[in-house]
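Check this:
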Amino acid sequence: MHEYSIACEIFEQVIETAKAHGALEVRHIILEMGRLAHINPEQLSFCFKAIAEGSIAENAEFAVEMIPPSLECECGYTGTVNETQIGENGGLQSELLEYIAALECPICGKNARITGGRELIVKSIEIETEVET
């Protein structure tokens, strides 16, 4: 399960950032995850929570915002794959295969190149610091 090693890296980044800002507690973490990143968000959250036990991030809410793949075409089009482009693709099982099947340019119909959708970004960290009186 590669989610564990990814959760370890996220944990280290979160703790390092939180401590650099004088955090007493990490309250909320938001990740942006590309739909083509091949990471299970539920497993990643589970691993993060296990790693965070006993730390300042132990009770942090862990949220994942999914990012659709982005496309670029030789005709000049740039944009994201949306749910209407995916549609029903003959019962394909894998979301990845569904996206690959939908990677034609909505403008000219030619094959478009994937330029995004594999990201994993710590978007925000909400922390609690000591209140000055």
About this structure: The domain at 2-68+117-129 is CATH 3.30.2320.50 (hypothetical protein PF0899 fold). DSSP finds four helices and six strands in the chain. The mean pLDDT is 84.
